[in-house]
Amino acid sequence: MSQPPSFDGLPEFLAAARRLSVSKAALDLNRTPGSISQALQRLEQRLGLPLFHRTTRRMSLTEAGQALLETVGPAAQAIASGLEDAAQSAQAPSGTLRLIVERLALPHVIEPVLPVFRQAWPNLNVEITVSNRHEHFVTEGYDAGILIGSYIAQDMIAVRLCQPYRWAVFGSPAYFRAHGKPQQTRDLIQHQCIRFRRPEKGDIYRWEFLENGSTVRVDPVGAITVNDGELMRSLAVKGAGLIYSSTFHTSRELAAGTLEPALLDCSPGSDGLFLYFSKTARHQPKLRAFIQVCNRVLEL
Question: Is pLDDT above 90 for 139?
Fold first, then answer.
């Protein structure tokens, strides 16, 4: 199919504007410098104005050329991305999908999703690493990870895998009967808190609240420190102290009535589990297939 006349000269213009050199534009487009110059001249004649300042040593954009580049450049990039998306979507998922996931995602995401995913794509292999240490996600060759949203680097693309949840203090009914429920964050100093040491950083996690419109961070005081969330919740169920967790992490205990929330009105906001990946990985057919199954199974 022939190229629309209105597009004549635009590929040559964009290449020359990017490189500010006819000879380099010719190399990029696998053309002769003469054909590039002729295409630029025809475009300038059609528009009725010069697009480049030319000397024997250098080339630069005129004001009109700069304006055209700012208008046409993003559109050309959008067209190129659209063509790439179309080409990628035509490819069937293949190879091995490598995921690094935090333990919390196992019962809530991996266990319900993986059997359906394998049934849909039986020729696709899956490798799952369970870890809370995601700082070397890219260099270790993972296609995607599953992590709490607030821990994900800002340059990653994130897809929500659960409904938003809230952070709060949780304790057993027996603990609250014996010691009462904290009504304000300053009441926490009167309670035994089970502290959580983050495995990925080694520090004690500070409890964060929103009180009177301001963020309040509390260094919990208590005789017990753990680095495992499941153990922390189990100890709280047994009345060993209060914990700082979320309505998602404690969903099973809340449903069973073995834990109750406190200071829920001081929750710093909603969070959730997210599948995250780099921008360069977003077009992988195997990753797109996994996202589609997650959306279907988790009813997002």
Answer: no
- What does the alpha-carbon distance between residue 268 and residue 37 come to, in Å, rounded to a whole number? 60
Per-residue pLDDT, averaged over 264-292, amounts to 89
Looking at the DSSP bridge assignments, the partners of residue 204 are: 197
Same domain, 115 and 151: yes
Structural domain including 175 reads: 165-271
Quote the tokens at residue 85.
């998306």
CATH number at residue 75: 1.10.10.10
Residues 61 and 35 in one domain: yes
Residue closest to 236 by CA, chosen among 186, 192, 202, 189: 192
Residue matched to tokens 């049934």: 119
Q: Decide if 168 contacts 263 (C-beta within 8 A).
A: yes
Q: Are residues 180 and 190 in the same domain?
A: yes
Verdict on whether the full-model pTM lies above 0.90: no
Q: Where are the alpha helices (DSSP H) in 91-172?
A: 105, 111-120
pLDDT in tens, 98-133: 999 988 899 889 999 999 999 999 999 999 999 878
| 106 and 33 housed in the same domain | no
Is residue 263 within 8 Å of 182, Cβ to Cβ?
A: yes
What is residue 86's predicted lDDT score, i.e. its pLDDT? 61
Distance CA 259, CA 244 (A): 12
